[in-house]
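To fix ideas, we close by showing one paired sequence and structure record:
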Amino acid sequence: MKKLFIVFAVLAVMAMPAYAQETAAAGAGAWSYAGLGLAIAVAAAAIAQSRVASAVAEGLARNPAARPGIQLALFLGLAFIESLVLFIWLGVLFLRS
């Protein structure tokens, strides 16, 4: 987990110079950095959602009687994960406006 945080921190630092100055084509290179950031966010969300689904399947297999509580946690977790991707997508759109 610590290595993943370090990778994201390095990518964030590398993306900062793209927004530091305007280019002749009105920031055309910034789109590639924004797209890269969005792609990383979507990939991380897909991994997180698969881990949540795996944990739910394991939890239901261990204790089928706890289905309502587990199902509520599943829906809340997936909604929070997906909302983070939507916030990043909106940030990319507003950044280029």
